[in-house]
Amino acid sequence: EIETLGRNVYLMFLAESQRDLWINVLSKVPSAAGGGRLENQLVNNPPLSAGSKSSLSKGIGMDSLLAFEDPSDEFLHKSTVWSCKQRRILNCRNFVFTSLGQAGVQSKTCQPNEVASEALQKVLEPMEHSEEANLRAFLDSASALKAVNVSDMPESERLPFFLNLYHIMVMHAFLVLGVPDSAFKWASFFNMISYQCSDEIFSLTELEHSIVRANMSSPSQFVAKFVLPKSDYDFALKRSDYRINFALNCGSLSNPKMVPVYRSETINEQLDATVRNYVKQSVKVKKNIGGGNVLVVLPRICYWYASDFGRGRAVDVVYLVKKYLDKNIQELLPDKLSEGDWFSTGAITVKYLHYNYQCRHLTLLQDSS
Q1: Among candidates 261, 306, 324, which has minimal Cα distance to 116?
Q2: How far apart are CA 153 and CA 155, in angstroms?
Q3: Which of 189, 212, 334, 340 is the most buried (most CB within 10 A)?
Q4: CA distance 151 to 162
Q5: pLDDT tens track of the chain, all 369 residues?
Q6: CA-atom Rg of the chain in angstroms
Q7: Residues ≥6 apart with Cβ < 8 Å to 264
């Protein structure tokens, strides 16, 4: 077994002499970290002899790996088993040799929500201290997601799992590849970043639109018709909930910086808290003292996914968002919102913020429940 930060590689040989030849060649490969050789980084590196065992368990250090001209060589995998097309698998550090656990009889290490919660907490932890060890631990947790089985889980448990998985994949991609630096790169970036999980592979875009939002509206942008996948997954969610639009956080500056670890026992309360936090940052309500009319400024996602809010009218969006606003702001809006009485007459005007495609790393929201 040869271990680097990004991969664990297994080599099998017909004879010990072949093994020893490979070990001797690999031990002479220069390490980019300090100009040393790989043999200096071996753990318990004994002299090779017939019948001896050797482990390359440390491999090349993090500094050299992250200094690669193209990190995708180390951290992305194009599977020969799956039909990947443009998708590249990120959780590829470890192989998984065990079959998927069955729901209800899975071992503790294969409980989907526990594995996802652990991985999300690790990737959202600051990595300034023991950076390589922390990143290595996260990459191992991400690989463990290959072995989970979500197909037989109830939807109430799949929803928090997939929300956590979405944020794991976002941060995983940001850590090893960096953030997409322009709006033009978003489609290719989110369609490329993929995970193997529950005997399937799917990209970030597929996770969002074909699994989490499978039974919800398509975004209203014209270009979405051409870049969104049309994949089908047996474990896709059938629930339609407008709050999910606020919960999926891709790291855009238009979204809150912090995300919680979603849990099945508190998912409803957490979704309410997420919407409340989002609208507190993004929604503005102003009353014109002279004319008496009210201006409501909403985040762009309320425009893109308006059909998830009742009948998709501006009044439906404002009505559902209103209850998450502070009391003093709610008082600026009428108690009974009516399209005919308030919106068509111009008494209430709705505008939408521009979406910011600049991204940042997410951080962990503590005590999210």
Answers
A1: 261
A2: 6
A3: 212
A4: 12
A5: 777 777 777 788 899 998 888 888 877 765 544 444 343 443 334 333 434 433 333 333 444 444 455 666 667 676 666 666 778 889 988 887 765 654 444 445 579 999 999 999 999 987 665 677 888 899 999 999 999 999 999 999 999 999 999 999 999 999 988 898 887 888 889 999 999 999 899 999 999 999 999 999 888 665 556 567 778 999 999 989 999 999 999 999 999 999 999 999 999 999 999 999 999 999 999 987 666 688 999 999 999 999 999 888 888 899 899 999 999 999 888 766 655 555 655 678 899 999 999 999 999 998 644
A6: 24
A7: 113, 156, 157, 159, 160
Residue 167 and residue 84 in contact, taking contact as beta carbons nearer than 8 Å: no
Cα–Cα distance for residue pair 99/93, rounded to 1 Å: 18
The residues that bridge with 359 in the sheet, in sequence order, are 252
Which residue has tokens 């855009």? 252
Joined together, the tokens standing for residue 248 give 């999926």
Q: How many CB atoms lie within 10 A of CB 195?
A: 26
Find all residues with CB under 8 Å of 314, minimum gap 6, and list them.
306, 339, 343, 350
HSE-CB of 71 using CA atoms within 13 angstroms:
19
